[in-house]
Amino acid sequence: xxxxxxxxxxxxxxxxxxxxxxxxxxxxxxxxxxxxxxxxxxxxxxxxxxxxxxxxxxxxxxxxxxxxxxxxxxxxxxxxxxxxxxxxxxxxxxxxxxxxxxxxxxxxxxxxxxxxxxxxxxxxxxxxxxxxxxxxxxxxxxxxxxxxxxxxxxxxxxxxxxxxxxxxxxxxxxxxxxxxxxxxxxxxxxxxxxxxxxxxxxxxxxxxxxxxxxxxxxxxxxxxxxxxxxxxxxxxxxxxxxxxxxxxxxxxxxxxxxxxxxxxxxxxxxxxxxxxxxxxxxxxxxxxxxxxxxxxxxxxxxxxxxxxxxxxxxxxxxxxxxxxxxxxxxxxxxxxxxxxxxxxxxxxxxxxxxxxxxxxxxxxxxxxxxxxxxxxxxxxxxxxxxxxxxxxxxxxxxxxxxxxxxxxxxxxxxxxxxxxxxxxxxxxxxxxxxxxxxxxxxxxxxxxxxxxxxxxxxxxxxx
Length: 463
Ligand SMILES: Cc1ncc(COP(=O)(O)O)c(C=O)c1O
Known about the structure:
alpha/beta; Aspartate Aminotransferase, domain 1; Aspartate Aminotransferase, domain 2; 2 domains; seven-stranded mixed sheet; 18 helices; binds pyridoxal-5'-phosphate
């Protein structure tokens, strides 16, 4: 990449971390400038925002990915959590290539959707019926519609800070508008149909279900953002009881946790039988895809014969790419590998080692931060209120939602960038996932990168 394509340092920005980033990534800087002319903020997903710009990736394999400038990253973003087998798993890519060569869109039923559905049913005990969608957002949209139609009730209960995709019912109270007012572009009536509850507070839930007007409660069953704001299993059990007692449906949103927390998701691991569940990410093996699973009598509202037989009006559902053959190929391949056993456990064991190693690094550097999480997830807590914590003994339940949802934005952004400079890719919130492709060498490299990143932050007075 020629020097002419290098972005000049932003005016007034004399950060050594930013300078090091610009120095390493002239090709990404060039693409970021072109993207800025095309896309709002130059990006295609809010979670991909990096200050001043992120890496443009051209290739990925196993636990690593490479940008246009040839820099290698240990990949903890894992395709937004979709890749528990690692990038470009050979069985998945071979199946995709084989199927793709035969056609990508038949506009008809095809054998692979049956194989994919059977793979889901094998892993998910509560999946009496399945309907494929093109994304997790579409899956939660359908689950809510099914719940309203089935119960005849108008409202949806959600938990503050929980993410269920970006459709109109899911925006209030996720990252903002915790008072229940609509986010821009969402009808007031839609926001009024959402009852926001405090995560982990069963008394709040019970009080708000008492009116009997809530069709369903939807929850990220191991807490917001794969346990970044954790929830106790007892809370999910209590939620199951409270919903049953009031004729309210329980929707476990397993989009991010499904096939990762355990092969059958959080519901199967905790022995909780939901009325409906929503799935995506790992479900489709790294390609677009989602689904709703659950009780037959509820999903039968989509059935041309069963709905009228039950004296119900059928719910329409189209979707050009529902169960498309390429996603079905990748998804069935991934789920069949997971069904062989050991995948979730292996990724979780790696994450446990990583969390412990990173906490040692933080302790050695004398910072009151912590790395925590469960299963194959990990999150860096930057301790915005200066709590007296020690990395190894940090209790994530002792922290308030406010501290999780209002992290120190500048420090978080600079640490993310410093980690990128040192070859580590995390989510923007400094969370990550491990896959079966991550090794002890990746863990050691990540710890060294964190140490170097902390020293870079220290050098410019950020910590
Ligand atoms: C728990 C949860 N639900 C729903 C979604 C939305 O899924 P998608 O991005 O496939 O629309 C996500 C995405 O991150 C998620 O984590």
